[in-house]
Write a structure and sequence with these properties.
Helix content: 25-40%
Radius of gyration: 25 Å
Strand content: 15-25%
Shape: globular
Low-confidence stretches: none
Number of helices: 24
Largest sheet: 9 strands, mixed
Mean pLDDT: 95
Structural class: alpha/beta
Length: 609
Amino acid sequence: MAKPEVFQDDSEMAQAIFAQMDGVVRLALPLGLGKPVSIVNALVRAAETDPTLHLSIFTALTLSRPRPKTDMERRFLEPAMDRLFGAYPPLRYAELIRDGAMPDNISVSEFFFQAGDWLGNDYAQRHYIAANYTHARDVLIAQRPNVVAQLFASDGERLSMSCNTDISADLFTKRAEGEMEFIAVAEISDELPFMGGAAALEMSEIGMILEPIAPYSLFSAVRRPVANAQHAIGLHVARLVPDGGTLQIGIGAIGDAVANALLLRDRRALDDLWKAAPFPLVGAETGSFDAGLYAVTEMLVGGIVALFEAGILRREVDGATIHAGFFIEARDMYARLRAMPSAQRAKIAMMPVSYTNALYGDEAVKRAARVNARFVNGAMQASLLGDLMSDSAKMGQVVSGVGGQFDFFEQAFALEAARAIATLPATRTSGGRVTSNIVWQTQVVTIPRHMRDIVVTEYGTADLRGQTDEEVIKRMIAIADSRFQDKVTQEAQKAGKLDSAWRVPDAHRQNTPEQVKRWLAPWRDNDLPDFPLGSDFDPVERRLLPALLRLKEAAMNKVQMAQLIVASVTAPPATSEGEAMQRMGFKSQAGLFEPLAARALRGALRFRD
């Protein structure tokens, strides 16, 4: 068996790759964490230096650490950047895109963006390729890649694709079957866990290996605090998941809230909380998980791992409790996977998304396994008729991409007793202005109305499948924020889709943030904390987060900003106020000539709703 050529110098390896490809590299890179940053950057640098070389890159989800836009963001993020997000180097091609400096001999296309990263960037928006996750593999193959590069884990004898079997596993299979030709190059990371399933590869599958002298840290997706609305959504979703069924959830605060609610439900800790709900509840699944769940998910997230460690995920399919396509998470999840006993970790089988996101191929086996499936995914907006907008902010501008969301809705309609659950907060705040996420019509449609199923906000659950347009509209208004219910009701009536005599029922007239806050308040400190799955933020930073959010919202509202300034003088000092102010680079004690920015922050720390 041929042994791969081993390099320690990435520039030397890049030159060897270009030489083997006669100066033309069509590079396939995995989504997210699996990009071998050292190799990629060396290839880009080589092409920048030598315009006779040609480099085209097809990938998705280019990870980058946040770039502070304001002085407050800089003060908060810069001292803790490596601790929070990992000492993860920037990808050179992303810098070129951001700077508008891409050479003519380099091109980059992505089918999924890091959320919001490329809004307003002409190059990225022009080179975006719209594709369902299950179709992205075939789009990639059509580019005729001649180099596949990935970050791998190693046990000394074998390699593991670890975090990214999503498309890569199928590419290696197709090469073995003679359907593709490419050289595979690998960069080794000691921080990646060695995962099984379709992830394991023999060394002979790889042409070149980079064993860097100074390896970089993995990117860490910092967990965000779970707010009242998100916890309420999790509590509603938890009533929809049958014991013995199948589960998929995504990353983010709502995914964390759903996992936390399922953990509480298993301990029978939600009965009193549900009884206290001021909103009508839907779903009768409230008992413990006696049979357990099985997870099939494109993304292995911290919530799924927490359910697995708690024994809630324990129903096995082909020896695995979890089948997943890729992962990006907070650093503690990587460490937990590495530390798991090998027999336990083997129950998490990494697979291509052609397995997790689709039924075709071994369809009978998949149907038998995916019983009572619940696919839980987030949306940005929902129309009264059930359309979902999940990937764009306005016409033509892609926020992220459809990813696998459409795939799971498709499965929900194809599988017996399966449901697709779309989650979203009922409102959003931007520039100090509150707007509704439940609207008459969305500007862009990711999931069309003919695939409407279940929509959940903090105010309840709307079961839409099989309902008439008028009934769908009524159910969507029932889970909208009451500040906007009359407006959307009038829009639907004006369009002739809703009886002109219909009025919002009294039971749904108290859909307000204050009502949600009163409902959850007795449980917020213990069962419903800000970080139910843990956090990389230290206690002072966790104290700062809500104050910084309040300050950000007030920045565009003169009245709110004035309230903060007044609070900085009249309100009593907040807990750990001095430490928080010092953490942000200000004096701990208030002074007569305190800068306005410091005074506003102090007011945000002291302010009480």
